[in-house]
What does this fold into?
Amino acid sequence: MNIEIRTFAEHDRTAVVRIWHDCGLVYPQNDPDKDIDRKLVDGVELFLVALVDGEVVGSAMGGYEGHRAWVNYLAVSPERQGNGIAAAIMGELECRCRAIGCPKINLQIRKTNTKVIEFYRRIGFVEDDVLCMGKRLIDDSRPNP
It folds into this structure.
């Protein structure tokens, strides 16, 4: 299987959002189209898609703020999982991060997603001794005032 990894393009949107839904990554407070729109403003250099035979089969939305990179929405179509696609996406993301001088990649995983936790351990990620905190500024499940 030949896996192509490239930067997201607008014509990938429908396939990427479908994959995110298929993988259970979309929650009511996260509107995937709004997340993509926000990423397009930020820059797409680390927003990657994976293709097999010209079909979008995976994605990861990375970002870098000068101290560390973050990865969100790593997803591979359920019928394509277990074929090295996620590892290929992450490998390319790591290469791009190194190229811009990024010293570390962080990510967040829901504690209940044990399958994904094991995947990240296999590709070299370890748990940091930190408490992750968040504050929602915009709830996409509600109309904006």
Observations:
- The chain has a mean pLDDT of 92.
